[in-house]
Amino acid sequence: MPERVALTINGKRYEALEGTTVAAAIMNAGATCRTSVAQQARGPLCGMGICFECRATVNGKPHQRTCQMICENGMEVETQ
Amino acid sequence: MMQRFDIVVAGGGPAGMAAAVSAAECGKQVAIVDDNLAPGGQIWRGKDIPATAKEWQARVNTANVTYLQEARIFAQPAPAMVRAEQNGNYLDIAYQKLILATGARERFLPFPGWTLPNVLGTGGLQALVKSGLSIEGKSVVVAGSGPLLLAVAAYLRAHGAKVLAVCEQAPFLRLLTFATSLVTDREKLRQAIAYKLQMLAVPFHTSCWPVSAQGRGKLESVTLRKGNRTRTIVCDYLACGFHLVPNTELAELLGCRIADGKVAVDEWQQTSVLNVYCAGEPTGIGGVELALIEGQIAGYASAGEQDKARAFFHERANRRDFARKLEETFALDPALKELASDDTFVCRCEDVPYRALKHEDSWRAAKLHTRCGMGPCQGRICGPATEFLFGWSTGSVRPPIFPTTLSCLGATPELTELQETR
Amino acid sequence: MIATYDAVVVGAGIVGAACACELARAGMRMAIVEAEIIGGGATAAGMGHIVVMDDSPAQLALTRYAQALWNELASQLPASVEYDRCGTLWVASDEEEMREVHRKQALYTSVDISTEVLDSQALAEAEPNLRRPLPGALLVPFDAVLYPPCAAVYLVECAKLAGAVLYLGKTVTGAERGRVVLSDGTELSSAHIIHATGAGATRLMPHLPVRKRKGHLVITDRYPDFVRHQLVELGYLKSAHSIASDSVAFNVQPRRTGQLLIGSSRQYDDTGPWVDQKTVSAMLARAFDFLPPLKHLSSIRVWTGFRAATPDKLPLIGPTEDPSVFLATGHEGLGITTSLATAHLLTNHLLGRKSAIPLQPYLPERFAREVAYA
Asked: Is A63 within 8 Å of chain C by CB?
């Protein structure tokens, strides 16, 4: 039985299966990762850590590439 | 912090694994430096990897190969040394020989709505699903170009997605020629038939591409064009990528000669820089089998085992034929240059629209005057797009070739006496 | 083919662009020749800091005049120029430098430049990310920052609106005795040829006392409000002052984008464009010393550029022995700041009009009898 991990996305609590990346969790939650220079909502594009569209603030640190981070219990993710 | 190895392999995908295993089996101290969360590169990710991937992974595990994971090479702070960032710390890795197996990335072309959330690359959507995105019951349109389209469509379907259409920009005749040329390659033929059987229910269109994506806040529908007909399909996701481009940044940083967008190598997979080798997609997009062959050649050659390397030359020649056919088959239709409207953002990091770029003369002028390419992706997304749209070549590469924490950028490298007198 | 102009400016960096704009507006029939990219030389590499500096009375006069000109122009600048009157904070790291703060304040007050002394607490409140405690700083509130390549583009557009003709992508093979010859054979005939060629000035005029002085810069990702003012250590003056040795100094700028621009370095001997790890390490170490939280931020790019340095740290503005050739070069680290003032001084000189400050300290003839650098 795969473990579940609890994290918050923009203040709301979500559960993700163990091993899920933060980017996938954000998408599953129907949220977006960041707001662009021209104020557009953006989500992941390349899925391989090079486009930087999946950046969000994780545990207070901005510009984290969420497609390269695995969800951890208690993680706080905020759209940046 | 500095570590030394006989042979350092940059990239842990098929080419990197093959190179590392080959060199290690010759008795060399080898390290693989890889950016990702797990080995396998882009193509061998997740749980459903093919048997051959598991075999190579097992060989890496048993060979004397040090695996430096989640480590991103971004600079060469001193000769015969690369610097990587790993978990916020820097790692200086000294080598006698370096093998670049940095793989490829998708090519993205701008069209109205391509920046909407839930528009991803083809490999991009697959990667997200492999890393936990729930796709069961969701509707997807797969578009763009390249063998990845069918592979991703089949994968998504196997995971419960409703693939509504697969739209390849290349014309039918070229694809037919390509498919028939595969007849001589049993493995590829088997793969192609398998995809086709899985995909029988899915409409596959050629000479077809997206002209716009629509939605409020996120994707709601995609408009596709074939000839002079357009059709709008309501869907949850658009997986759109226009084939692959080599990741040549590290090679360029090290001063390797690049020809026609590929790292130039000799028969031993050695670049124009002494002691630097290159294998796999950066020498030309050719798929997994060619990457494995080139990796083994580079691994053996760098370890001084020329005879073992030579044993693979014949197969490499065959596989390179395949690579050439790939390039010809999936060449981009010039009509794709017209997709972007004046307002379409070409540079997503800095939100630079097409209108701002069309009057610039060069990549550098565009960078300086509009900020295109000056964001954290360092032109990896907009560079190939502007190269196709305007014919600009993206020019010289400086460190850091990947955004890096300032403390890692600024750390002073430890230099041995030997290096200082070089 | 020969085209005739009243004035031809060679080089469309910010200095050349400013000169072209001013000369065109003064009614001269103008041409601008740029080999590569408008604002693509030192203009693209520099910090875009508009700053009053007092290394010498002549430098103070020029930068003060220039700061006022930029302040006047500010409201007309398009958004792409990112003009931001954020002010400069000259940071003191010890009591000796704090005395320098007071000395500067007295000097600036005497020439009507607005300043304010911040004590230790006021400085900590103004810039919370600076290390504490620091003795204090001098705030120069009317200093500003902007994005230089777009400023150069704007000034060239102004020149073109006033009738100037732009020859873009053309290399000058000769520019003397009233004739400018381009690599494609085009000839421009002009009574006034202005060399605004920056660090490349000695290509066309090998005997000019202009030397390349390499600098490195680093830019971060977006961290809005991390610093609010351009922060410069008073030790910067020692770095910029020295004409012989390599040096680094703490110099951090907030861009309108929220990115931070980190400098600064000066090297004489290394004239290649490559990024030098030793210099970057030293420069960043200095920056971390003043702004400890900086070390955790993400950097996106590093680049180098070449300042045009003269032996006395003052630019070369004005006539040469060739009655048709004039100079507007040698601005070292003050090209952005003094571009507008250079343009005004030069234009007034060509038209026989009086300038707001004397041209005399910047005249090229001051080096007529100079033989070599130490």
From this structure: yes
Q: What is the mean pLDDT of chain A?
A: 96
Is B362 touching C (CB cutoff 8 A)? yes
pLDDT for B191 equals 75
pLDDT of residue B201: 81
Q: What is residue B198's predicted lDDT score, i.e. its pLDDT?
A: 67
List alpha helices for B254-312, DSSP H: 287-302, 306-310
Q: CB neighbours of B300 closer than 8 A, spacing ≥ 6?
A: B22, B23, B26, B306, B308, B309
What's the pLDDT at C69? 97
Burial class (CB in 10 A: 0-12, 13-18, 19+), C87: buried
**The 3-state secondary structure of chain A, one letter per residue:** CCCEEEEEECCEEEEEECCCEHHHHHHHCCCCCEECCCCCEECCCCCCCCCCCCEEEECCEEEEEHHHCECCCCCEEECC
Q: Mind telling me how many Å the CA of C356 is from chain B's nearest CA?
A: 32
Give the B window 5-34 contacts with C, CB below 8 Å: none
User: What chain C residue is nearest to A38 in terms of C-alpha separation?
Assistant: C257
Q: Which residues of chain B fall below pLDDT 50?
A: 417-422
Chain A contacts of C221, Cβ < 8 Å? 62-63
pLDDT of residue C374: 45
Which amino acid belongs to residue B369? Answer: H
**Integer Rg of chain A from CA:** 12
Residue B25, token pair as written in the block? 């089996």
pLDDT digits (tens, 9 = 90+) for B59-92: 999 998 999 999 999 999 999 999 999 999 999 9
| CA separation, residue B61 to residues B32, B56, B294, C160 (Å) | 11, 9, 20, 66
Cβ <8 Å between C220 and B376:
no
Q: φ and ψ at B230, to 5 degrees?
A: -120, 155
Chain A contact present for B410, CB below 8 A: no
For residue B92, list its beta bridge partners: B2, B83
Q: Please name each of the domains of chain C with its CATH number.
A: 2-45+148-209+312-367 (3.50.50.60), 86-143+211-309 (3.30.9.10)
β pairing state of B237-242 and B139-145: parallel
Which sequence spans correspond to the domains of chain A?
4-78
Q: Which residues of B touch C149 (CB under 8 A)?
A: 368-369
H/E segment holding residue B141? strand B139-145
Could you tell me the domains of chain B? 2-105+245-328 (3.50.50.60), 108-242 (3.50.50.60), 334-390 (no CATH)
Chain mean position to CA A14: 11
The pTM (predicted TM-score) of the whole model is 0.94
Query: What pLDDT is stored for residue C241 in this prediction?
Result: 64
Contact list in A for residue C257 (CB cut-off 8 A) is 37
pLDDT tens digit sequence for C80-117? 999 999 999 999 999 999 999 999 999 999 999 999 99
The DSSP code for C361 is G
Residues paired with B112 in a beta bridge: none
Tokens of C276: 């030098």
What is the structure's pLDDT at B416? 64
Span C211-240, average pLDDT: 91
Which residues have C-beta within 8 Å of that of residue C199, sequence separation ≥ 6? C41, C42, C210, C212, C213, C306, C307, C308
> Is the confidence at residue A66, as pLDDT, over 60?
yes
Domain A4-78's class?
Answer: alpha beta
- Tens of pLDDT along B200-253? 788 999 999 999 999 999 999 999 999 999 999 999 999 999 999 999 999 999
ipTM attached to this prediction: 0.97
